[in-house]
Amino acid sequence: MTVTTAADPARSVTRPSVAGLGVPAAAAVAATAVFLLVHDALIDDSYITMGYARNVGLHLHWGLIPDQVANSATSPLNVLLLAVVTAVVRDGVIAVGVLFVASVVVATRWLQTLAVELELSRWLPVLAVGLLLVNPLLLSTVGLEPYLCSALLIGLLRYGAAARPAVFGVVAGLTVLARPDLGVVVAVASLVLPEVRRRLHVAIATALAVVLPWCVFSWIALGSVMPDTVVIKSGEATWSGFGFSNGPLLYLNSVPPAAVMSFLPVVVGLLVLLGLLAVRVTRRWAPWQQAIVAIGLGAVAHYAAYSALHTPPYHWYYAPMIIGGTLCAALAVARLRGGFALAAAGIAAGLAIGAIVVDLGNGLPWQRAVVQTNWASATQYQELGTELAVAARGRTVESPGEIGTIAYYCQCAVVDKFSDRGRMIGALGETEARSGRIGGFLLRLDHRNLDRSVQPRPAGARLVYEPHQAPAGPLQWPVTHWADGPGRIVLESIPAR
Question: How many Å apart are CA 398 and CA 46, to the nearest integer?
Answer without folding.
Answer: 20
